Amino acid sequence: MNKRAMALGLSVAAFYQPAWSAGFIDDSKASIGSRSLYFESDQRGKNGVDQRQSVTGLRVDFNSGYTEGFMGVGLDVMGLLGVNLDGGISPHSPATSNTITPLKTNGTPVDNWSRVGANARYKVAKTELKAGNALAPNLPVLVANDARLLPQSFQGAMLTSQDLDNVTFTAGQLNRAIGRASSNWGGIAAGGRKGSDAFRFAGADWKPAKNLLLQYYYAQLDDYYGQSFVGLVHDLQIDSQQSLKTDLRYFNSHSDGKNGSDPDYQYKSGYNAGGTGKIDNTSWSAAFTYALNAHSLTLGHQRVSDSGGMPYITNGNLVNGRGRSEGEGGASVYLYTDIMINNFTRAGENSTFGIYRYDFAGMGLPGLRAQWTYVKGQDIRGIGNTTTGRYSEWESDYRLDYTLQSGSLKGLGVSLRRANFRTELPTSTLQNQDQTRFYINYTYALW
C-alpha cells in the first residue's frame, strides 16, 4: 500500500475515533468479490504474439459511513489480489506486452500480484472530497479501465459537489497511476516515455430538464495536452415501449508544455503532422439509440481530425523505465468506438458504428442479454509524418451475459465475449487478431 495513503487513513481514523459509532462504523459496508478470466488472443500477423491465459482475482472493499458534525469524515479501503492459474504469452519475451499479468524478467507471468489502496473522504452538505490512491474516475476526460482482472487506479484528489440543484461539479488533480495488471505505480502519460507531474480536470453536468444532460469538462496533462469536452444527451420517451436517445460528444485537444519539443513527451500514435509528436486534434461523435421493448439499436458516426490521433491518458510500459512490460498498459476512452480490441482514434479516421442489444427478459429469461457491435474506420492516415496513403480497419464484437436472479448464488454473473479485428495499416502495434474472453464475477456483501 502507498505509505502516504496509509498514513492519511490512520491519522483520520485516530483523530475521529470518538465519533466512529455515530455513523462511521454503523453506516459502513464491506464486501468481497471474485473475478475469474480466461483470455485468448491470436495475433494473425507474421510476427504476432499469441496469448492463452487463465487468471483469478479477489477484491475486498470496506466503505465507512460518515462521522457526525459539520464535516463528515469517511474512509474507503480496497485490497486486490491476482493469481495466474495457467498459460501466458507466446513467444515469451520481457519486452512483449502482457495485458493480463505482470511479467518476470524472462517474459513469463508472475504467480501472483497484489496491492492495497485507500481514500479518505470529507463531506460538507452535498460536497465531497476524496483523497488517496484508490480513485477510479469515470468522466468524459478520464475513464479508469477495468477490462481485465483487476481495475486501474489513480492517486490524487477528486471533489464532487451537488449543492446546486440539477448540476454536478467535478474537479481534481491526479499525479500517479497503477495499471490493471501491475503492482507498481507509474507516471501518467499520453503515449510518451515520461510521466507528467499532474493531470488536472474540472467540469459540470447540468440537467436543465429531466430528459436532457449538458456537459462541459476541461483537462490538462502537464507537458502533454489540454483538452475540452462538450457533450449532450437527450432521452425522448415516445411511449411506454419506445424511446430515442441522442448522444453528441466533441473533444478539442492541443499541445501543452514540453509536448512537441522534448522527445520524452511526444505523442506517438500513428500519423502526426510535422512528425514532432505535437498534439493537435478534434474528435466528435453522434450516436442515436432506438429502443423498442427488449430490442435496442444504436447507429452512429465518429470523426477524428487529420492532424493527429486523439490523445488520452495512458501509463504505458516506457514510463517506469523497467525495460519490460509489467501490466501498466490499458486505457479507456469515452467513445462508443472504444471496444474490445481497438478504439478507432487514429488521425483522419472516419468511423461508422452500430450496436444491437437484446434483453431476453422479454422471452421469460431475465438476466440474459446479448449484444453485437460493429465499427468500420476509414480514411486513416498511416504511420509517420511522411505517409500519404489512406487505410481502413474494422472490428466485430459479440457478447452474451447472464446473471443469476435467485438462489444462494444470486448475483453470480458470467460473460462470454468474442472480437475479430482487421486492419490495412502496413505497420501497426494493433495487428489483425481474434480475441475471446470469458468472465465469472461474484460479489458477496459481508455486512
Automatic annotation (TrEMBL):
<keyword id="KW-0732">Signal</keyword>
<dbReference type="GO" id="GO:0016020">
    <property type="term" value="C:membrane"/>
</dbReference>
<comment type="similarity">
    <text>Belongs to the outer membrane porin (Opr) (TC 1.B.25) family.</text>
</comment>
<protein>
    <submittedName>
        <fullName>Outer membrane porin, OprD family</fullName>
    </submittedName>
</protein>
<feature type="signal peptide">
    <location>
        <begin position="1"/>
        <end position="21"/>
    </location>
</feature>
<dbReference type="GO" id="GO:0015288">
    <property type="term" value="F:porin activity"/>
</dbReference>
<dbReference type="InterPro" id="IPR005318">
    <property type="entry name" value="OM_porin_bac"/>
</dbReference>
<dbReference type="InterPro" id="IPR023614">
    <property type="entry name" value="Porin_dom_sf"/>
</dbReference>
<dbReference type="Pfam" id="PF03573">
    <property type="entry name" value="OprD"/>
</dbReference>
<keyword id="KW-0813">Transport</keyword>
